[in-house]
Amino acid sequence: MTNQFKLFLFLLLGCFTSSVHASYDSSSQSGNEERKIWVNTLVKICDPVLTNLANETLKTNMPQESLDPKRGHQFSHLEAFGRTICGIAPWLELGPDNTEEGKLRGKYINLTLKALSNAVNPKSADYLNFKTPYQPLVDAAFLALGILRAPTQLWGNLDKETKTNLITELKRTRCIKPFNSNWLLFASTIEATLLELTGECELDRLLHGVETFRDKWYVGDGTYGDGPQYHADYYNSFVIHPMLTETLLIMEKHHVKGAEFLPTQIKRFTRYAEQQERLISPEGAYPVIGRSIVYRVGAFHALSQAALLHKLPKTVTPAQVRCALTAVIKRQFNAPHTFDAKGWLRIGFAGSQIRMSETYINTGSTYLCTFGFVALGLPSTDSFWSANFTPWTSLKAWNGEQVEADHAI
């Protein structure tokens, strides 16, 4: 063996060892340090959307990346805004304070209020389209869910005119008939939001999605079909569990018949979150399966929401969810070419990978990734953030540690 070859093997081993150890680096970080990573990443993602819409330059400045530019993406701006609000709202709801993070929240609360005012103002250059079939139903629902998640800092701080305009735009979506899939829950979520904000809703439209998933599309062990057929993708997390759970919570609050399904749904939701935590590898990777995979860490919307609502299973501690999701966030958003030169998200899973997307996906669509950050709505004192580093299930299992057996419900 030549000295040169020995040197090559030594360098190769060093590179391999570094890459393996890199997956465990977060064990040296405190929950406070990891929270900073989440906050800084979320703000980096959301700033171009909120700043431009607040300044009425969203339509002028947002790029239009897509596999199908001929299709035209007249709804991409509503997609970007609705999804951004849905993801950032729980963090904003903590409100401003005198800490560095609290001052940053105050800045983005103000930007969001201005952006929301422009989005629903027919006189604004950035007035968004809520009524033309079919896409606005989707992103009006995401926006509505964001409003539900920040009742004090968003809804409570809107001026009377903007509140009226927002209600008008949400009601415009009633002309859009949802497809027989997860889309039913977009209609349910909008009606639940209208019920919460105004005291009235179209009851049939509210209940149809809930009853269909409850009575027809549950396939077992915490998973629903996306329509009559099961789809191997992350739509149980992107949409189904979060929206079904939030809608039922509003129904229970307003004593709507059918809310008695909530305890069963919570049991299924918790089980699904348990499964999601096990999907995250020791390196912060997860299976690249199904459509809309370029929504990145938004694939863990349900897991992050379960942490936010304190609905994690007994087998999963909040801190291990934090550590697992931190590993995913660092891996995806540190990938080269994730953002363009002006800070807008590029289409991709871990970088710029447009061929991984579908033709319905555009620049605005990618902001669904913010959904993975909803656990930032937990204050820094919550055990999700305050507890020491805790290895997640796959990290423990592949490290030879004891892990409890997994059981279906």
From TrEMBL:
Residues 1-22 form the signal peptide. The keyword Signal applies. Keywords: Signal. Residues 35-392 form the DUF2264 domain. This is DUF2264 domain-containing protein. It comes from Phocaeicola plebeius.
